Amino acid sequence: MIRLFAAVVVPGDIGHALARRQQGLPCARWRQVESLHITLRFVGDVAENQADDLDAELAVVGGGPFEIALAGVGVFGEGADIVSVWAGLKASEPLKRLAARCETAARRAGLKAAARAWRPHVTLAYLRHADPVRVAAWIAAHNLLKSPPFPVTAFGLYSTRRTAAGSAYRLERSYRLD
Fold first, then answer.
1. DSSP state, 146?
2. How high is the pLDDT of residue 163?
3. 45: enclosing H helix or E strand
4. Taking 90 as the threshold, does the pLDDT of residue 143 lie above it?
5. Each residue of 105-133: pLDDT tens digit?
6. pTM for the full model?
7. How many CA within 13 A on the CB side of residue 39?
8. Phi, psi of 97, rounded to the nearest 5 degrees
9. Is the dihedral of CA 108, 118, 123, 1 positive or negative?
């Protein structure tokens, strides 16, 4: 079994700008710059042969390059159950279409429909026992986040494994969008 997801990587310069915001929440497990990404389709644990089928389907997704930009921050969860803080993205039809194509590829590879509605974001930190007041203050301090537009010319299929320091990701395949 292999645990997979399809994603767009956040460029280094954008990631370093995000890293400067990664402070002020003592309960946060901040993501490393090299781990920052926009998930297009979370796959989960699959057998190797199904991973091969998914790879074949993702290889024909296409769609052409486009630009995206970050905008705003938010949380998943509420009150004492806040589990993560994230950077959002400006609305992008090309990104939405790419995620939909990845969902279609996953279904063609025999995977079940995604369990959650897709919401484009970059997870900045996972939280445990977060103080909602401190999280609200962090959100207020960073809610005007914006990045310059950056190009999306490819996406990747990543494997993930859990470690004591959090999840570790490895690029398994890359797919150009031209």
1. B
2. 76
3. strand 37-46
4. yes
5. 999 999 999 888 999 999 999 999 999 99
6. 0.94
7. 18
8. -65, -40
9. negative
